[in-house]
Amino acid sequence: MTEPRPSRYWPSCLAGFISWPCALWFTGCSCLFFLIAADVRYHGSIARWDQQFTTYLHSLETHKILFFSWVTEFGTGGAQKLLWALTLPLAFSKCWYQVPGLFLAVFLGGDINSKMQHFFGRHRPTFDDLPLLTHPGFPSGHTANACLFFGYAALILWVEFGSTKLFKASVAVISSAVILSVAASRAALLVHYTSDVIGSLLWCTAWIIVCYSVNRAALQASAQRMNIWLKGGCNST
Questions:
Q1: Quick one: pLDDT at residue 75?
Q2: Angle at 166 (CA atoms; ends 165, 170), nearest 5 degrees
Q3: Closest by alpha carbon to 149, among 73, 200, 208, 89?
Q4: Which tens digit of pLDDT belongs to each residue from 47-66?
Q5: pLDDT in the model for residue 13
Q6: C-alpha dist (Å) from residue 60 to 117, 131, 196
């Protein structure tokens, strides 16, 4: 597993837990999410712009484009259950220690997203020619599912199997394309406002960083304790 590079500007107590670039990403995504969330909660300027933009998308009839109806399925639970088969080889490989972080990111992250939807209670876009959706919309659930699963899976591939720059670039491009396509489809299908999907992308990115850092810190702590135990056993003999 790749260790964070030390920096004289970064506290040594955090070096084993999270690297400073990840900390910057986490801080930036978290701050932007809270700004959008506060605006949504108190019906600020972003919320008003959302309504205008969604009305514009409705005039373009983006909800009738078949591509968006197809790609949005990558954010559903049914499609991801099939993709969970990809974790089986991971669980029985040398990268088994990444499985807890993946489960933590996807399952707990999905539950947190659902709780936030009920907390903010934001209504969905409404149009006379479209079905009325009553489930709260902020942050977008489909976008969260896609971002958490494909984002964390891409992170594992990047860290564990990214031996070449071409492979890393391919993983980054493919995973980003899937995640952004699902996010765009939710707005294009007029089932979410734009800030719903942007907010989901921001908080899920921050959550992935937390889950990966916690999983890595737990692994390092376990390895250190194992080394101490082994040394103690050798010394006693």
A1: 87
A2: 115
A3: 208
A4: 889 999 999 999 999 999 99
A5: 40
A6: 28, 18, 20
Q: Which residues of the chain have pLDDT under 50?
A: 1-16, 234
**How many angstroms separate the CA atoms of 52 and 57, rounded?**
9
- Per-residue confidence (pLDDT) for residue 78, from 0 to 100: 59
Closest alpha carbon to 156 in 175, 142, 141, 143: 175
- What is the spatial distance between Cα 124 and Cα 130, in angstroms, rounded to a whole number? 11
User: What's the rounded Cα separation, in Å, for the pair 204 and 198?
Assistant: 10
Res 6: pLDDT: 40
The owner of tokens 């934001």 is: 122
Lookup: tokens for 105: 């990111």
Global confidence as pTM: 0.83
Q: Where would I find the H helices in the chain? A: 12-15, 20-41, 45-60, 66-71, 77-83, 87-91, 99-103, 109-120, 141-161, 165-188, 194-236
| pLDDT at residue number 234 | 47
CA 170 from centre of chain = 18
Give the integer Cα–Cα distance in Å for 198 and 180: 10
Gap between the Cα atoms of 173 and 198, Å rounded: 19
> Per the structure block, which two tokens stand in for 73?
């399925």
